[in-house]
Amino acid sequence: MATRRYSTAAEIALYYTRQTAYQPECKQLSVQVRKELLSKLEQVILARRKDIQEALFQDLGKAALESDYAEIFAVISELRFIQKKLGRWAAPTAVANNLLFFGAKAYIQSEPKGRTLIISPWNYPFQLPLVHLAASVAAGNTVILKPSEFSEHTNRILAEIIAEVFDPQHVAVVEGAVEETTQLLALRFDHIHFTGSPAVGKIVMQQAAKNLCGVTLELGGKSPVFIDRQTDLSKTCKNIIWAKFLNAGQTCIAPDYALVDSSLKEAFLAQLKEALITAFGTDPKLSKDYARIINGRQLTRLKTILEEELAQGTQLICGGEVLEEQRYMAPTVVIPTRLDRRLMQDELFGPILPVIFYQDLAEALQIVNEREKPLSCYIFSDNKAYVEQVIKHTSAGSTCINDAVIQIMHPNLPFAGVNNSGIGQSLGKFGFQDFSHQRAILQSSPWVRMSSFFWFPYKERTKKLVNLLIKWF
Ligand code: NAD
């Protein structure tokens, strides 16, 4: 059992003071030194692989293999990618001049933002804190990391790994819940990276506004899946089962609900049930690959939503079993009778898949557009026109066509929400840029200072020049 101990107010104040004092030195860390730190982090993670798997199993019942690819590999690949590209990302980028700036040098220089705070959720408690930490360290910042209070076993390993690689004046872990986070948010950071619910995201943004501190918000939402009649139904159903029930549905970009062409109704439900049995057997609680719900509170929330629905006539297609002592909820598929209850209003963040059958695409689009802009949108169709229609008439942080969830693994795509599902961009180059200030630098031409055209006193030739600018530039 991990013993729970939250950081004290004095510890938080000490980390902050030490990181503030270390700022001037931290900003001067060369790209080489930053890369060496990230490389050391990579080595320590690989050396602790078994401990990480064990901790994730205790917190979320994750299969070791799932921890390997969805947590450890996700961090390792990000660390390797950053090390490979950092030199290029951190180098000044020249931009083109127009005629007015002939002979001048214009470029963008990434500079560290300074003191950063990273706040993480519990669903990918190893991967999420570390990929953002890697971006912040790569950008040359100090980091205070506040993991979720609900993933205590993983937090312990995380804190040990970080302490082995970094001095706390550079990177420190603060453990705690609302009180400790509130204390952190009262401090003046230069950037806050928050991953969690939209409700807490608003609190973070309000606190950040007091210091005009930059924020990145990686939030959640109800991510829809569109299923067209022109699709390979067998593959699509397997795809949905994996994406939805990975980590027992506790994935921010998991499909939240499915919108299916009504002509597919019987075939879709039959294939979905078959895919579920192929994935987890006839009794999923016996499957070693099926994860558990993080805690009793989340399980009760999900159970209540399901009970409310079933009491209102929602049709249970499969699943529904809940075992409190095991924090188990079976993969559950339902057909709701109405869309105005919690099932179709709140982000589910658990193993319940509502399926809605639509008569025409406009109806499905309306259901999506009546809700907040989601983190992701999935489209299963071999019809180009259908795909284009969905993209054109919806908005989402990311979109994946004929697959789901894996868009997050692409090294050159940003990871981000839009409005209620997030602000700012993460991962790869986008993460580095988000944790950096893009400083605009202009060095005047050695022959002529451009502003001399406007120097006082204004003359007739100034007027002519301005008229020329208005006409031609
Ligand atoms: P949460 O918002 O409850 O908590 C996130 C963090 O905020 C935790 O560290 C928690 O201690 C802290 N916190 C909670 N209440 C607070 C308060 N009142 N004041 C200050 N800090 C507070 O989210 P969660 O339950 O940990 O995670 C689930 C949510 O996270 C879902 O909405 C999910 O979609 C989202 N999520 C998003 C991403 C993404 O990358 N976009 C990834 C994972 C999870």
Which structural traits does this protein have?
473 residues; alpha/beta; Aldehyde Dehydrogenase, Chain A, domain 2; seven-stranded mixed β-sheet; 18 strands; binds nicotinamide-adenine-dinucleotide; oxidoreductase; Ald_DH/histidinol_DH; aldehyde dehydrogenase (NAD+) activity; Aldehyde dehydrogenase; Ald_DH_CS_GLU
Q: How many strand segments?
A: 18
Under CATH at level 1, the class of the largest domain stands as Alpha Beta
What would you report as the Rg, rounded to the nearest angstrom? 25 Å
Number of H/I helices = 16
Question: Which spans of ≥5 residues are poorly predicted at pLDDT below 50?
Answer: none
Number of domains: 2
Ions, cofactors and other ligands present here are: nicotinamide-adenine-dinucleotide
Summarize model confidence as the mean pLDDT: 97
Second CATH tier, the architecture of the largest domain: 3-Layer(aba) Sandwich
**Largest sheet: spatial strand order:** 10-13-14-9-8-15-16
What coarse outline follows from CA principal-axis ratios?
globular
Could you state the oligomeric state of the chains shown?
single chain
Distance between the termini: 69 Å
Helix share bin: 40-55%
* Structural class assignment: alpha/beta
Percentage beta strand: 15-25%
| CATH topology heading of the largest domain | Aldehyde Dehydrogenase, Chain A, domain 1
Largest sheet: 7 strands, mixed
Active site: 218, 252
GO molecular function, one term: aldehyde dehydrogenase (NAD+) activity
Protein name: Aldehyde dehydrogenase
Pfam families: Aldedh (PF00171)
